[in-house]
Design a protein that fits this description.
By secondary structure, this protein is an alpha/beta fold. The protein folds into three domains: 148 residues, Rossmann fold; 122 residues, no CATH class; 67 residues, Rna Polymerase Sigma Factor, Chain: A (Orthogonal Bundle). The protein is 44% helix and 15% strand. The structure holds NADPH dihydro-nicotinamide-adenine-dinucleotide phosphate (NDP) and magnesium ion. NADPH dihydro-nicotinamide-adenine-dinucleotide phosphate (NDP) binds next to helix 1, helix 6 and helix 9.
C-alpha cells in the first residue's frame, strides 16, 4: 500500500493558520510553545479542549484565536462569559460539531490532532476531508480505522505528518521515494524504539501492586496520564506498531520493537545494503512538532542540544512479552485485522481509566483487553459506522469487567 504521508508541499501566503485540537494537553501546550517562538510564521486560529475551561481561556488570552471549542456544553457556556469579561473576541463553540467546524475553516492550513483517545477520530477525519496538513499525535485514530483514515487523506489530498516521536523519526529516516513501497526502495525493516517505561526492570511479581502515580512516572517523557500508563504496559508500543503499519504501508513482521532505555534514538530504518538510519535527539516532543510544522524546512523548537558526552552510552534489549502482554495483544490484533484493533483500543481506554480510578490493578489491564477481544465479534472495518459500533460494544464489555456494572 502506498502511504500518502507528506505527498506534496504547499506554500501559503503569510503566516500559516493553525487549529490545535487538545490545546490544554501535553502535546497541545508543547505545540503552543513552538508557535510562540515563531509569531511571524504561524497564527493560532482555533484552540480546543474537553472541559478545562479556565486553562483554555488563559490560552486564548495569550494567543487570541478566532475560535475556542469546549466539547462539554456547560463548560463552553461558562467560557463564553469569561471571554466577554476578559474582552476577548474569541467565539466559543461546543460539541464534536464545534471540533469539526474549526478544523475545516478556510484560514486553517495545519491541524494539530492532539486529543487523547477515540474522541480524536471524528475531528481528525474532518481535517482529512478538508484537505489540511494534519499533524497527527492522536495515534488512536489510526489504530481504530487505519484504512478509512488513510483513504480520506488520499482522496482529499490532505497531508499527514507524524508527531509521535518514533514515527516522526522513521519518516525522517526513510528515503525520499518511500511512497513507492518499502521493498521497492530497499527498506528491509523498521526498528521501533521503546523506553520500556517505568517497570522495565521491576520484579514481575511486584507489578500487581503498582499505583497510578508510579505508572505515570515515566523515566524520560512528561506526558498525559493515558499515554503514560500505555507506556508502562507497553500498549503504547503496540498501538505504535499498528500506527506504523498504516503510515508506512507495511506489515507487523517488518517492524521490530527494540527497547532502548535512554530514549535518545527515536527509531530507525534498516536498508537492504546493511545501512541503518537513525534519528536522535533529546526526548522532547517539541522536536517532532517543529519538524512536522516546518517540513520540508527546519525551524528552532526550543529543545536543548543533544550532549553525547553526557548521554555517553546507548543500550538495546529485546522486549519481554511475558512482562508486557499488551504488546503481544496489539500484534495479534493487527494480524487479525478488521475491527480487532478498534476493539483492542476501546478495551484499553476503559481498562486504563479503571486503573487510574483504582478500580482494577495494573496487571488486570491486559486480561480485560484479551477477554474483550474474545467476546466482541471481529467484523470487516469497511465503514466508520462499523468501527464506531465495535468501539462502543467493546467499551460496554470492558466496562462491565472493570467496574462490575
Ligand atoms: P493529555 O491528556 O495531556 O491531553 C489531552 C487533550 O485532549 C486535552 O486537551 C483534553 O482536554 C482533550 N480531550 C480529552 N478528552 C477529550 C474528548 N472526549 N473530546 C475532546 N477533547 C478531549 O494527552 P497528551 O497530550 O499526552 O496526548 C494527546 C495525544 O497525543 C494522545 O493520543 C497520545 O497518545 C498522543 N501522543 C502524546 C505524546 C506525549 O508526549 N504526550 C507523545 C506521542 C503521542 P481537557 O484538558 O479539557 O481534558
Ligand atoms: Mg511515541
Amino acid at each position: 500500500m502506498i502511504s500518502p504521508i507528506a505527498s506534496f508541499i504547499r506554500v501559503p501566503d503569510g503566516p500559516v493558520g493553525v487549529t490545535i485540537l487538545g490545546a490544554t494537553g501535553s502535546i497541545g501546550m508543547s505545540t503552543l510553545d513552538v508557535i510562540s517562538r515563531h509569531p511571524d510564521k504561524y497564527r493560532v486560529i482555533a484552540l480546543t479542549a474537553n472541559s478545562q475551561l479556565e486553562r483554555l481561556v488563559a490560552l486564548c488570552r495569550d494567543f487570541k484565536p478566532q475560535y475556542a471549542v469546549l466539547v462539554d456544553s456547560n463548560a463552553a457556556e461558562k467560557a463564553g462569559s469569561l471571554m466577554k469579561e476578559a474582552n476577548l473576541n474569541t467565539q466559543v463553540l461546543s460539541g464534536i460539531e464545534g471540533l469539526e467546524t474549526v478544523v475545516a475553516l478556510e484560514d486553517v492550513q495545519q491541524v494539530m490532532a492532539a486529543i487523547v483517545g477515540a474522541a480524536g477520530l471524528r475531528p481528525a477525519l474532518a481535517a482529512a476531508r478538508a484537505g489540511k496538513r494534519i499533524l497527527l499525535a492522536n495515534k488512536e485514530a489510526l489504530v481504530m480505522s487505519g484504512k478509512i483514515f488513510m483513504d480520506e487523506v488520499r482522496a482529499n489530498n490532505a497531508e499527514l505528518l507524524p508527531i509521535d516521536s518514533e514515527h516522526n523519526a522513521i519518516f525522517q529516516s526513510m528515503p525520499p521515494n518511500y511512497l513507492n513501497g518499502l521493498e521497492k526502495v530497499g527498506v528491509k525493516k523498521i526498528l521501533l524504539t521503546a523506553s520500556g517505561g517505568p517497570f522495565r526492570d521491576a520484579d514481575i511479581s511486584s507489578l500487581e501492586k503498582v499505583t497510578p502515580e508510579q505508572a505515570c512516572d515515566h523515566p524520560n517523557w512528561k506526558m498525559g496520564k493515558k499515554i503514560s500508563v500505555d507506556s508502562a504496559t507497553m500498549m503504547n508500543k503496540g498501538l505504535e506498531v499498528i500506527e506504523a503499519c498504516w503510515l508506512f504501508g507495511t506489515s507487523p513482521d517488518h517492524i521490530q520493537v527494540v527497547i532502548h532505555p535512554q530514549s535518545i534514538i527515536h527509531s530507525m530504518v534498516a536498508y537492504d545494503d546493511g545501512s541503518v538510519m537513525a534519528q536522535m535527539g533529546n526526548p522532547d516532543m517539541r522536536t517532532p512538532i517543529a519538524h512536522s510544522m516546518a517540513w520540508p524546512e527546519r525551524m528552532k523548537s526550543g529543545v536543548a542540544d543533544l550532549d553525547l558526552f553526557e548521554v555517553s552510552r546507548l543500550d538495546f534489549e529485546r522486549p519481554d512479552m511475558n512482562r508486557f502482554p499488551c504488546l503481544q495483544l496489539a500484534y495479534d490484533a493487527i494480524n487479525q485485522g478488521g475491527t480487532a484493533p478498534a476493539i483492542l483500543n476501546a478495551a484499553n481506554e476503559v481498562a486504563v481509566q479503571a486503573f487510574l480510578d483504582k478500580s482494577i490493578s495494573f496487571t488486570e489491564i491486559s486480561g480485560i483487553i484479551a477477554r474483550t477481544l474474545d467476546q466482541v465479534a471481529n467484523e470487516d472495518a469497511t465503514t466508520l459506522a462499523v468501527v464506531l459500533d465495535a468501539d462502543s460494544s467493546a467499551r460496554k464489555v470492558a466496562h462491565s469487567m472493570a467496574y462490575g456494572v
